């Protein structure tokens, strides 16, 4: 695996190191030892799947409060996603800054989203699917969100308005942190 740090502390892009032959290729998509060597989460409590029927479906921004904060490792298994994380850690030098990346079945890239960061994605194709490796079990009482278009963060999405968004995600309040 090839690890690339981003400007957001702990947020890392992970690309496959492919071993190719006439059949195609083989690559490891996860290795606890290598993740630990790079200072990244090395424990997975659960794996989540998100299937999205329609292009321009928006999910998020979601995060969990401590002590239930989640490290997430997100990869697009089918289609493509415009993925955005927001750093909500007040002690971080990049507090309230965001990072946007393309994750797709074609690029097979993974984004590591550290605890204390909110995450959202917009599907760029019909029938897009995301797979998350998550370091903590879901704790409903610790769930929080940030509205996708909160002006505090000035995220520039590739569309003016999502085609599909849940009422819950549309209704998160303005960020008060």
TrEMBL record:
Its EC number is 5.1.3.13. InterPro entries: RmlC-like, RmlC-like_jellyroll, RmlC_Cupin_sf. It catalyses: dTDP-4-dehydro-6-deoxy-alpha-D-glucose = dTDP-4-dehydro-beta-L-rhamnose. Pathway: Carbohydrate biosynthesis; dTDP-L-rhamnose biosynthesis. The keyword Isomerase applies. Keywords: Isomerase. It is an enzyme of class 5 (isomerase). The keyword Isomerase applies. Gene3D superfamilies: Jelly Rolls. One of its GO terms (molecular function) is dTDP-4-dehydrorhamnose 3,5-epimerase activity. Catalyzes the epimerization of the C3' and C5'positions of dTDP-6-deoxy-D-xylo-4-hexulose, forming dTDP-6-deoxy-L-lyxo-4-hexulose. Belongs to the dTDP-4-dehydrorhamnose 3,5-epimerase family. Homodimer. This is dTDP-4-dehydrorhamnose 3,5-epimerase.
């Amino acid at each position: 695996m090839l690890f690339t740090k981003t400007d957001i502390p702990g947020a890392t892009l992970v690309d496959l190191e492919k071993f190719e032959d006439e059949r195609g290729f083989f690559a490891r998509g996860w290795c606890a030892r290598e993740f630990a060597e790079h200072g990244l989460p090395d424990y997975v409590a659960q794996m989540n799947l998100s299937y999205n029927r329609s292009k321009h479906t928006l999910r998020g921004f979601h995060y969990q409060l401590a002590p239930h904060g989640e490290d997430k490792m997100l990869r697009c298994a089918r289609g493509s996603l415009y993925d955005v994380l927001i750093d909500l850690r007040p002690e971080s030098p990049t507090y309230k800054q965001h990072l946007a990346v393309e994750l797709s079945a074609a690029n097979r890239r993974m984004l590591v989203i550290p605890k204390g960061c909110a995450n959202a994605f917009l599907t760029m194709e019909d029938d897009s699917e995301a797979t998350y490796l998550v370091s903590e079990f879901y704790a409903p009482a610790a769930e929080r969100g940030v509205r996708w278009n909160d002006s505090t963060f000035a995220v520039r999405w590739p569309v003016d308005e999502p085609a599909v968004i849940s009422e819950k995600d549309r209704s998160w309040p303005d960020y008060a942190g």
